[in-house]
């Protein structure tokens, strides 16, 4: 009897030992698998970072070279040597660009024009989109189709008629002529409308039952709920207004009203020194738009896609 007990005890101990060894082997295998997965993730992440860095350098190469030329003395620009980086960096080009033209005044004009156009488009497009989304009236769909059809008309096709209208009103070389024709846009109306359609109509009906007016509904309910769309619209509109060239070129004629995109051309002349001056001016005027895009790029992407999915 005792021999049987001893045998069972030995067998049980052997089984337990085998199970413990198997458990340890499984644990070690899992740990090795986790380490392999971690190394694989690190490798994939490193490859993605390397690929993104190389692509960023390729895309930013013209901008980086422009910055290099801006710090390059004019004597180093046109030589037989391949000067990618300035041998003797200098800030003279920036100083001369500020002296040769009233660049500060041009920047102020561009900020004023772009800022007011951005505010005007946000207000007008949000109100128009509200009417297309929540109000019911005859011809709403047809009117919206007509608004969207204007997106297929290139700006060059109507720029002459707009110029004649502004000229007839006596708005040439004024802020009104620069700003008022761009206070609304079909793209902005479409963006806000698509965002508003993601809200249930019961939200508007409940507000009306509580005695909320249409304007109060827009200001107190819609605007706080559409911050992402407003941010996207603001970034997109400001950059477009900042980079306008043809319209300010037509309607402005004095240094007091010119914007940066027009004024920067005044740095160009026949001598070689003007190229480095002009590049220095270009570097200075693109910094605001690049900064705004970098700060608001997440808001821009979120606003562009937030109204695409309902719910």
Quick tags:
MetI-like fold, 0% strand, mainly alpha, 311 residues
Task: Tell me about this structure.
With 311 residues, the chain is mainly α. It has 2 domains: 2-70; 92-306, MetI-like fold. It has helices spanning 2-70, 74-77, 92-100, 103-134, 140-149, 155-168, 175-179, 186-196, 201-209, 214-225, 227-242, 246-251, 260-263, 273-306. Helix 11 runs antiparallel to helix 14. The longest helix has 69 residues, at 2-70. The model has no long low-confidence stretch (mean pLDDT 82).
Number of helices: 14
Instruction: Give the class from helix and strand content and strand pairing.
Output: mainly alpha
Rg, rounded, reads 32 Å
CATH fold-level name of the largest domain: MetI-like fold
How much helical structure, as a percent, in the residues?
Answer: over 70%
CATH superfamily name of the largest domain? Answer: MetI-like
Low-confidence stretches: none
What coarse outline follows from CA principal-axis ratios? flat
| Quantity of strands, as a count | 0
Major sheet: none
User: In angstroms, what separates the terminal alpha carbons?
Assistant: 75 Å
């Amino acid at each position: 009897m005792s021999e049987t007990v001893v045998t069972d005890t030995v067998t049980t101990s052997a089984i337990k030992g085998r199970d413990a060894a198997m458990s340890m082997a499984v644990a070690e295998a899992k740990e090795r698998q986790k380490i392999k997965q971690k190394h694989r993730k690190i490798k994939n992440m490193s490859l993605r970072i390397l690929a993104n860095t190389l692509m960023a350098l390729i895309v930013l190469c013209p901008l980086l070279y422009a910055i290099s030329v801006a710090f390059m003395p004019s004597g180093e620009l046109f030589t037989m040597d391949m000067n990618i980086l300035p041998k003797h960096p200098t800030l003279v080009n920036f100083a001369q660009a500020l002296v040769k033209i009233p660049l500060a005044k041009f920047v102020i004009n561009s900020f004023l024009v772009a800022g007011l156009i951005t505010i005007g488009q946000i207000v007008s497009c949000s109100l128009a989109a509200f009417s297309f989304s929540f109000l019911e009236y005859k011809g709403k769909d047809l009117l919206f189709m007509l608004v969207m059809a204007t997106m297929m008309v290139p700006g060059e096709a109507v720029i002459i008629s707009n110029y004649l209208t502004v000229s007839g009103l006596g708005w040439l070389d004024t802020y009104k002529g620069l700003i008022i024709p761009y206070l609304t846009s079909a793209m902005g109306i479409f963006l806000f409308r698509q965002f508003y359609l993601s809200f249930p109509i019961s939200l508007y009906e409940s507000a009306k039952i509580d005695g909320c007016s249409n304007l109060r509904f827009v200001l107190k309910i819609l605007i706080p709920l559409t911050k992402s769309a407003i941010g996207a619209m603001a970034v997109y509109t400001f950059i477009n207004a900042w980079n306008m060239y043809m319209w300010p070129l037509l309607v402005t004629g004095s240094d007091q009203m010119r914007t940066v995109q027009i004024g920067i051309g005044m740095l160009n002349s026949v001598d070689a020194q003007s190229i480095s001056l002009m590049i220095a001016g270009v570097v200075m005027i693109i910094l605001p738009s690049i900064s705004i895009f970098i700060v608001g790029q997440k808001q821009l992407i979120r606003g562009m896609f937030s109204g695409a999915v309902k719910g």
